[in-house]
Amino acid sequence: MNKADTAFVLASAGLVLLMTPGLALFYGGMVRKKNVLGTIMQSMILISLVSIEWVYLGYSMSFGPDVGGFVGDLSWFALKGVTNAPSADYATTIPQTVFMIYQCMFAIITPALITGAFAERVRFVPFLVFSLAWTILVYNPVCHWVWGKGGWLGNIGVLDFAGGLVVHATCGAAAFAGVLVLGARKGYGRSSFMPHNLPMTMLGTGLLWFGWFGFNGGSALAVDGVAATAFIATHMAGMAGMLLWVVMEWLTQKKATTLGAASGAIAGLATITPTAGFVGPNAAIIIGGIAGVVCFLAVSSKSKFGFDDSLDVVGIHGVGGIMGTLCLGIFASTKVNPGGVDGLLAGNVSQLGKQALGVVVVVAYAFVVSWILFKVIHSVMGMRLVEDAEVEGMDSTEHSETAYNY
C-alpha cells in the first residue's frame, strides 16, 4: 500500500462528492424560484439513496467477480470481504475500501445529472423509485462492462478514463428517454422559463469545475504522471469549452451570457472526461473547443425537435460524453500515457471503431431500460406532477417549503 496514493484518492473522493452539491446549485439556479428547493433536493437526496445501494448491491454488481462479462455477482454484498488490503484487480497501491468509496461518489452523481432533463415537473417519491431502479439496472451493469474485471466492453478494448460512457452517455440517454415519456413543462414554448438565480448557477459551476479535478485526476488512482496529465487536460478542456461556447453566442446572438459561459465549461469538462488521462494539453484544448461548438449547437437545436430538456442534459452531458468517447479513439497517444492506446491520429484506426461500438451499445441499452422504467413508474405511480401542483411549484406541493421568505 502506498500512503501517498491512498491520501490522493481519499481527497479525490471528497472532491467528487462535492460535485453533487455543486450540481444541486448549478441546476437550482436555472429553474424558477418556486422549484429551487425541489431541484436541489433531487440531487442531494441521492447522496443517501445511492450510497446505501452501493454498499449492499452497487459495488458488488459493478466490480465484484464477473458473471458472463455482464455484471458482478453479489459475493461482496454489504461489503463482505472488502478490506483495507489492496485489491489484486483494482488499484493495487491503495486499500480496496478507498477504491470502493471513490467509486461510490461516481455512482451518486450519475443519476443526479439526469434530474436536469425533467426539472420542475416530477414528483419526489416516484423520482426516488426511478433513481434507485436506474442505478441498479443501468449504472451498475454498464460500470461493470467498462471498468469491471471481466466486463465485456473492457475486454474488447473499449476505454473510458473517468466516465464518458459510464457517467455522461448513460445519463444523457436516460435524460432523453425521460423527456420523451414525461413530456414538456406546462407552458413550454409559450411561457418564460428564465433562470431565477444565475449567481447560484455560477457558484455551482465553480464547485463542479473544482470537483472535476478529483473526478478525472483521481481516476489515475495514483500520484503519478497520468494523474498530472488528467488534471491538466481537465482544466484545458473546461476553459476551451467555455471560450468557444461564448464565441458561438457572440456569433449567433451578438451577446455573451454567464449561462453560456457556465454551460460551455461543463460541456468541455464532460467531453474531456473519457479521454483525460490519454491526451496532452493541446489535444485537450481542441477537444474542449469542439465541445463548446457542438454542444452549443445541440442545445440550440432542441427547440426545433420540440422536446423540453429543461437544463440541457442531453445536449451537454449526452452529446459531450459521446463526443469525448469518440475523441479518445482519435487523439489518444501512448506518448502521453504509455499504459494507454494510440488513436486514429497515431495510426490506430481500430480504436476509434471500438469506441464507436461502446457508444452505440451503452447509449442503446441505457435509453431502452430508462424508457421502460419511466413508462412503468409513471403508469403505476404517476411520476409527473398534476397540473395544479406544477403551476404552484415543487417546493410547496412536494416539500411544504419555500426558498425565499420575502
Question: Quick summary of this structure?
Answer:
The chain has 406 residues and is mainly alpha-helical. It is built from 15 helices and 2 strands. The mean pLDDT is 97.
Tell me about this structure.
This protein is mainly alpha-helical and 406 residues long. The chain has one domain: Ammonium transporter AmtB like domains (Ammonium transporter fold, Orthogonal Bundle). The chain is 67% helix and 1% strand. The protein is built from 15 helices and 2 strands. The protein has a two-stranded antiparallel ribbon. It is globular and about 55 Å long. The termini are far apart.
Name the features:
mainly alpha; 2 strands; 406 residues; two-stranded antiparallel sheet; Ammonium transporter fold
Q: What's the helix-strand series?
A: HHEEHHHHHHHHHHHHH
CATH topology: Ammonium transporter fold
Helix content: 55-70%
CATH class: Mainly Alpha
User: Judging from the principal axes of the Cα atoms, what is the shape?
Assistant: globular
**How many strand units?**
2
Order of neighbouring strands in the sheet with most strands: 1-2
Count of domains: 1
The CATH architecture designation is Orthogonal Bundle
Name the average pLDDT. 97
Largest sheet: 2 strands, antiparallel
Radius of gyration: 20 Å
Instruction: Give the count of helical stretches.
Output: 15
Strand content: under 5%
CA-to-CA gap between the ends? 55 Å
Q: Low-confidence parts, pLDDT < 50 over ≥5 residues?
A: none
Q: Given the helix and strand composition, which structural class is it?
A: mainly alpha
Q: In CATH, what is the homologous superfamily?
A: Ammonium transporter AmtB like domains
